[in-house]
Amino acid sequence: EYREIATPSRTKEILAKHGFTFKKSLGQNFLTDPNILRKIVEAAEIDTHTNAVEVGPGIGALTEHLAQNAHQVLAFEIDDRLIPVLADTLSPYDNVTVIHQDILKVDVATVFKEQFKEELPIKVVANLPYYITTPIMMHFLESKANVAEMVVMMQKEVADRISAKPGTKAYGSLSIAVQYHMHAEVAFIVPKTVFVPQPNVDSAILKLTRRETPAVEVTDEKAFFKLTKAGFLQRRKTLWNNLQSYYGKDEATKAWLQKSLDEAQIDPSRRGETLSLEEFARLSNTMEALK
Ligand code: SAM
For tag attachment on the chain, is the N or C end more exposed, with fewer CB atoms within 10 Å? Predict the structure, then answer.
C-alpha cells in the first residue's frame, strides 16, 4: 500500500530503518507535512512540461511530490549517508536522478544539459539548507543555466530581504542582486512545527520568476553590483559617505563621484536604502561614462 514519505510516521520509520541521525552542520531539517509539500509544488506550477531541480532531497519528501508531477527531476545531495536512503525511498519513480555532490561545486548549466532528456522550462524547487541559502541562490542566478523559476524555502528573514522594496529596512544589495534577474515574492509562511528537527527560525517560501530582460539597463553589470554594495556599506551613513569610503577619498575620486551624482540627479545626502534599482542603474551608468 502507498504511504507517502513525508508523513511523520513514515519519516520516523525511514530514519530508524537506516539508522539516520541529523547533521546540524548540513542544515538538515526535514519536512513532515504532506500539505505543505503540495502547496510548494502548486506554487511552483510543476507539471509534465517542467524539468525540476532540487537541492538537498534529504530522505526524498519533496522529491517524491516533484517526481509525481514533473517530467524529470534532478536532485543534488551532499550527504553520502542519504544516497542509499534515497535509492530505497525513491525506487518507485523512474524519472528521478540523484546526484551526490555539493551543489556549489556543480557547473549546473553543463549538468542540466547532460541530464535533462528534453528541453523544457527548468524550475528549482527546494527546502534549502539554511547555512548557505544566499550562496545557493546566487549560484543559480549567476550560472548560464536558464532557470525559469525558483520556489524555495528559506529563513523568513532572508525571504523578506530578497523581496524587499526600496525604503524598507529589509532592502539591501541582496534584494537588488536577486531582483535584477528575477521577480521576487513571498508565496507563504511556514511554521517551525512542520520540520524534524524544528529549526529556531520561521521559514517562508519565496517564489522567483525570471524576468524577460533584467529589471534595469546597465552598461556594466559588475560596476552596477559594486555600486549597490558600496551604497549599503554602512546603512546609517549617507550615500556620499559610503561612496567615498568605498571608492576613495582622494580629490580626483571625490570629484568623479560628485560629478556623477550631480549628472544622475541623485542627492548625495540620501541613504542607499532609499534608492530604487533604476536610480542605482542611472548612477552606475553615469559613473562608468565619466570614468
Ligand atoms: N528536501 C528535504 C526535506 O524537505 O525534507 C531536506 C531539506 S534539508 C533543509 C537540506 C538538505 O540539503 C539536507 O538533505 C542536506 O544534507 C542537504 N545539503 C546541505 N548542504 C548541501 C550542499 N552544499 N549541496 C547539496 N545538498 C546539501
Answer: N
